[in-house]
Amino acid sequence: MRYVLDIEPKPQSRPRFGKKRAYEDRDMLAWKRRFMYLLKSKRPAMIENGPIAVLLTFYVYPPQYLAKSKGRAEALRNEEIYVDKRPDLDNYTKAVWDCSNGILFKDDGQIAVDGNQKLYSFNPRVELEIFEL
């Protein structure tokens, strides 16, 4: 199944530490709630058991210097420019896996194959494909 979620990708934040416990950043919690809402609205069928493959594409809004570059305008419009800057790809991936747990699959331990990429786009979003193996 393929899902397109109209939400700007956000990397998993580092845990914060208070007096007696660790907690997650407020912005990250809000992003996760929104992501889960969008994902649930697609009414996915959960894969209860067995190995799965997950393919993720993160479309990130380009920085100003790139957005104004006339030489790369067409490649940018065609979403052909890979992101080679921070945040790291694995932090984006971790946030999506955490949100998809219990919605797309029972446990992220089922993920046996993954493929991920991040590209610049004027239409930020997350595209997710999931397959049973």
Description of the molecule:
With 133 residues, the protein is α+β, with helices and mostly antiparallel strands. Helix content is 28%, strand content 26%. It contains four helices and six strands, in the order E-E-E-H-E-H-H-H-E-E. It has helices at 26-41, 64-67, 73-77, 89-100, and strands at 2-5, 16-17, 22-23, 52-60, 111-120, 125-132. The strands form two sheets. Strands 1-6-4-5 form a four-stranded mixed sheet, with helices on one face. The longest helix is centred in the N-terminal third of the chain and has 16 residues, at 26-41. The chain is globular and about 45 Å long. The protein starts with a strand and ends with a strand.
Q: Order of strands in the sheet with the most strands?
A: 1-6-4-5
Number of helices: 4
Shape: globular
Strand content: 25-35%
Q: Total strand count, please?
A: 6
Q: How far apart lie the N and C ends?
A: 13 Å
Share of residues in helices: 25-40%
List low-confidence stretches: none
Q: Main sheet, how many strands, which sense, barrel? A: 4 strands, mixed
Using the CA coordinates, give the radius of gyration.
Answer: 16 Å
User: Would you list the SSEs in sequence order as H and E?
Assistant: EEEHEHHHEE
Query: Average pLDDT value?
Result: 94
Structural class: alpha+beta
